[in-house]
């Protein structure tokens, strides 16, 4: 019986030492079981740093790099190039959301198709590149939903090559361009949001490339490129 009481007292002492008495205060730092990245090895804005000779924490960008989200102009400013626009979602129009009112739109927005310096072969090549970087791992190189992750139990990636996917009348398989854009932006199901990783123009480039994969499969009878 004495061992029971000793164990009881021991457990009570552990609880009190870990959590303290209700309402008690301490100058010691709290015990963090899950720190949730509260303490990161980084220099905050306007803070000094002894690591650099000048003592400044804020540094100029590395030479030759481009800030994330900055769109490089297609031509120099002296030749009439417009200032680079915000490359991430910044409005409620079709170009920014993929929606027209409460409904998904279809077709590429005029901000893409109306600019010959944007809507060209390089635009589709860009879509292919971005798709292979961000999407092919789950959706497959041909968009058939059988990417690398399908070999490890993730079998819910959308199959853009299923029958009727290019036919708007087939509601079960068809996804409007705006709907695809919205999922890239906000995620759906197991797919997380890529709105903070992929710029607006690149999202639309991916949509255009997905359509090219579907058209190639429809015309040739196979899902290209082959897995």
TrEMBL record:
Domain of life: Bacteria
Keyword Heme: yes
GO molecular function: electron transfer activity; heme binding; metal ion binding
Keywords assigned: Heme, Iron, Metal-binding
Chain ranges passing through the membrane: none
UniProt key word Iron: yes
Alphabetized SUPFAM superfamilies for the sequence: Cytochrome c
Family matches, as InterPro entries: Cyt_c-like_dom, Cyt_c-like_dom_sf
Domain Cytochrome c: 122-214
UniProt protein name: Mono/diheme cytochrome c family protein
């Amino acid at each position: 019986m004495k061992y029971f009481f000793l164990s009881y007292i021991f457990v009570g002492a552990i609880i009190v030492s870990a959590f303290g008495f209700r309402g008690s205060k301490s100058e010691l730092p709290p015990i963090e079981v899950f720190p949730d990245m509260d303490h990161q090895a980084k220099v905050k804005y306007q803070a000094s740093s002894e690591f650099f000779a000048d003592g400044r924490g804020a540094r100029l960008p590395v030479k030759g790099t481009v800030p994330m989200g900055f769109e490089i102009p297609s031509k120099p400013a002296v030749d009439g190039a417009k200032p680079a626009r915000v490359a991430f979602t910044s409005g409620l129009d079709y170009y920014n959301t993929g929606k027209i009112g409460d409904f998904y739109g279809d077709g590429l927005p005029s901000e893409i198709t109306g600019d010959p310096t944007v809507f060209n072969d390089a635009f589709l090549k860009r879509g292919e590149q971005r798709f292979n970087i961000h999407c092919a791992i789950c959706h497959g190189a041909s968009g058939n939903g059988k990417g690398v992750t399908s070999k490890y139990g993730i079998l819910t990636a959308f199959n853009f090559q299923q029958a009727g996917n290019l036919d708007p009348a087939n509601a079960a398989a068809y996804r409007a361009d705006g709907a695809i854009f919205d999922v890239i932006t906000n995620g759906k199901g197991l797919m997380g949001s890529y709105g903070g990783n992929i710029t607006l123009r690149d999202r639309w480039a991916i949509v255009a490339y997905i359509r090219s994969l579907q058209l190639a499969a429809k015309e040739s009878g196979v899902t290209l490129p082959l897995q």
